[in-house]
Specification:
alpha+beta, Jelly Rolls, seven-stranded mixed sheet, 12 helices, 28% helix, binds fe (ii) ion
Length: 396
């Protein structure tokens, strides 16, 4: 049989993957794959070109605009050993870019893992002439390794397991989230031709609960400004706000598999928004400076440490290269134990470093039980649900 683009594609470099002109702009699908106008994360981009064609005049015009303007101005890119600087930027902006997190062999293994799983997602043929099935409630050509997995995470995969304890990231995480634990992992993908801008959103809204627990944690983390002996309610409003700001309920690292450029759809981040209770602007109301805040310039092997509360989104991938940002998610030690999903098989957990075992202890499934749905990838919610339930029934 002739080799197809799915057999031969690579995460790095030009590919024929994506750019499916038969997938209408802004189209999304429901839980069963029926075509619907919008839903969930499939919020329309009012500025998107009318056709998903690489050299269509409207795409060319958008590309020109991006070439001229796109990219976070003055983006600071740290080195892994700059712990003070990294912590300061993370607290101030709600995200920080650090380069050189992965050496070449590690980066090569991560890319291979990302290719293998993407191949699985794209090998399911699209409906009614489309090249691929769009993921439920998302914009076309955008997938999440996490939500496309029937276990909701990728912690059954050796590559994601390897992310749990890297010599470069462990010291940084220990500094910015002392006592952290792993809650899961996945990450997102923008195929070439994902021409719609994703809407700005938070990955975790802070309801401001657990004030006293967070105050105690802030003191234990070394923040000296909170007077001993006072409860959270006894603090003045500015200090209460500071407690919440300094204790993110969750965070993530997204690893860049390729150089992020003005053209290949990097994540964009709006600085300082981890501290706001306001909702981000709707796509039509976004000012240009927010549109152009993609983290262009971050090289392959770097990572974005993100406070989940900060506003961010995927941006249009106008290139011919896949933009792939696998991630690992973390929570502080005061995270409610009941909310962990058991997504890591015991057999994988056993292969981890002692520190890796420690921080993954709450996501580990018991010996002899396979995490429900792990290994099945599907863009459609109801297919994933069925796979998850079947695996649950099979084992119990
Ligand atoms: Fe997000």
């Amino acid at each position: 049989m002739a080799e197809t683009e799915l057999d031969s594609f690579r995460i790095v470099g030009d590919t024929t993957i994506g750019w499916d002109a038969n997938t209408p702009v802004n189209e999304t699908v429901d839980d069963d794959g029926n075509f619907v106008g919008s839903g969930g994360f499939g919020v329309h981009d009012p500025r998107a070109p009318s056709e998903r064609v690489y050299d269509h005049p409207e795409v060319q015009a958008l590309r020109e605009e991006y070439k001229k303007h796109n990219g976070f101005k003055g983006l600071e890119i740290c080195e892994p050993h700059e712990l003070d600087r990294i912590a300061k930027i993370f607290r101030r902006d709600g995200f920080v870019v650090v380069k050189d997190l992965l050496d070449e062999p590690t980066l090569a293994r991560f890319r291979e893992g990302c290719e293998e799983v993407l191949r699985q997602i794209l090998s399911i043929p699209g409906h009614q002439g489309r090249k691929y099935i769009t993921e439920t409630n998302r914009l076309p050509h955008r997938y999440s390794y996490g939500t496309a997995s029937a276990s909701r995470h990728m912690m059954h995969h050796p590559v994601w397991a390897e992310m749990t304890d890297l010599p470069t990231t462990t010291p940084i995480l220990s500094r910015i989230m002392p006592g952290y634990l792993v809650s899961g992992g996945g990450g997102d993908l923008a195929l070439p031709g994902a021409i719609e801008m994703q809407h700005l959103h938070s990955d975790g809204f802070d309801v401001g609960a657990n004030g006293d627990v967070r105050l105690k944690y802030a003191r234990e983390s070394g923040y000296k400004m909170f007077e001993e002996g006072k409860t959270f309610d006894e603090l003045d409003i500015r200090l209460q706000r500071l407690v919440l700001e300094l204790t993110p309920p969750s965070m993530t690292i997204n690893f860049a598999m390729t150089d992020l450029t003005w053209e290949n759809g990097p994540i964009r981040q709006i600085p300082g928004t981890h501290t706001t209770m306001q909702m981000p602007p709707k796509p039509a109301d976004e000012p240009d400076w927010m549109r152009w805040s993609a983290l262009a310039g971050a090289p392959a092997g770097s990572g974005v440490f993100r406070d989940h509360r900060a506003w961010h989104s995927g941006t249009p991938n106008l290139s011919r290269e896949i933009r792939c940002l696998p991630n690992l998610e973390f929570v502080p030690p005061w995270h409610n134990e009941q909310h962990y999903m058991k997504s890591m098989p015991h057999e994988i957990w056993k292969t981890l470093t002692p520190h890796g075992k420690e921080i993954c202890r709450f996501i580990k499934q018991e010996a002899g039980v396979w995490p429900f749905g792990a290994g099945v990838m599907h863009p459609l919610t109801n297919e994933r649900k069925a796979a998850n339930e079947a695996s649950r029934e099979e084992q119990y």
